[in-house]
Amino acid sequence: MKKFSLLFVLSLILAACSQEEPTQTYDFKATNSDWDTSYSVVQEPSVGQKQYELSIKYVGTGDLPKQVGYELADEKIAGTGELLVNNSIKKTDSCNECTLATEEDKTLTLTYDGKQETLVLKKQ
Predict the structure, then answer these.
(1) d(CA 73, CA 80)
(2) How many other β-carbons are positioned within 10 Å of the β-carbon of residue 87?
(3) Which one of 38, 68, 97, 108 has the lowest number of neighbouring Cβ atoms within 10 Å?
């Protein structure tokens, strides 16, 4: 009986140690008078995989910017793009063994037509 109890306890310990962390999904958004932005992340912490989509849409009333630079520094995402379909830029990517997202607010910096705007994306 002691052997059975010991085996049972050991199997419970091993089962608890081998459980994978669940998939994490985060959605962040920010809007101002010129921009509607979102950042969505799906990640598997147990293997360090992350898929994301960054969406930047111009909703302002002025002339449409020709080029928009963007930087989501905390997530190491940056680039420059043209506002094409629906006056927007969509950046999607995935990575393995990368820095995973957290629930903290994200700071997005946009640069266009000699201007710079900073939006704080909040977790939804």
Answers:
(1) 14
(2) 14
(3) 97
